[in-house]
Amino acid sequence: MAKATRAIPEGFHTVTASLTVRDAAAAIDFYKKALGAQELMRMPMPNGKIGHAELKIGDSIIFLNDEFPEMGNKSPQTLGGASGSIYLYVEDADKAFKRATDSGATTKMPVTDMFWGDRYGQVVDPFGHVWGLSTHVEDVSPEEMERRSKEWAAQMAQQAQKKTA
């Protein structure tokens, strides 16, 4: 019998920080040195930027990526102040998204099935913080995630071209 997929993946907690930085490779090196972080994975994009990395600090995992201004992901240096988002695992991303927007949050990204195996959407709370609301729905191998991420990156590039045309 197939093992049931957990709503919160093994090793994760309910809340996972996701940091956008200007030079993710340098940041990973810094967090290893300064905080004793352990690099769990790194996903380079075709342009050489890091699209996603996972670091373990203590018993918690954080996400880290290079900035992608064309997708609205900007580092604190670019913004001139601190930025970030909070990745919150929930049992039902759609219900959590509705509850958040019903309570006054605004939609940044509607809930959708993502290439890494989560059903995910983003809201901005009334104070300007971005919350990623996510339910893990599928365990995806690193190889499959890489394949899917390339397809997703190509789709995002096409959408960006349409917006500038």
How would you characterize this protein structure?
- With 165 residues, the protein is of the alpha+beta class.
- It has one domain: 2,3-Dihydroxybiphenyl 1,2-Dioxygenase, domain 1 (Roll).
- 30% of the residues lie in helices and 34% in strands.
- It contains four helices and eight strands, in the order E-H-E-E-E-H-E-H-E-E-E-H.
- The protein has helices at 24-35, 76-79, 93-102, 142-164; strands at 15-21, 38-44, 50-57, 60-66, 85-89, 106-113, 118-124, 130-136.
- Strands 2-3-4-1-5-8-7-6 form an eight-stranded mixed sheet, covered by helices on one side.
- Strand 6 (106-113) and strand 7 (118-124) form a beta hairpin.
- The chain is globular.
- The chain starts with 14 loop residues before the first strand and ends with a helix.
What attributes does this structure have?
165 residues, alpha+beta, 2,3-Dihydroxybiphenyl 1,2-Dioxygenase, domain 1, eight-stranded mixed beta sheet, 30% helix, globular
Layout of secondary structure:
Elements: E1 15-21, H1 24-35, E2 38-44, E3 50-57, E4 60-66, H2 76-79, E5 85-89, H3 93-102, E6 106-113, E7 118-124, E8 130-136, H4 142-164
Parallel strand pairs: 1-4, 5-8
Antiparallel strand pairs: 1-5, 2-3, 3-4, 6-7, 7-8
In short:
This protein is α+β, with helices and mostly antiparallel strands and 165 residues long. The chain is built from four helices and eight strands.
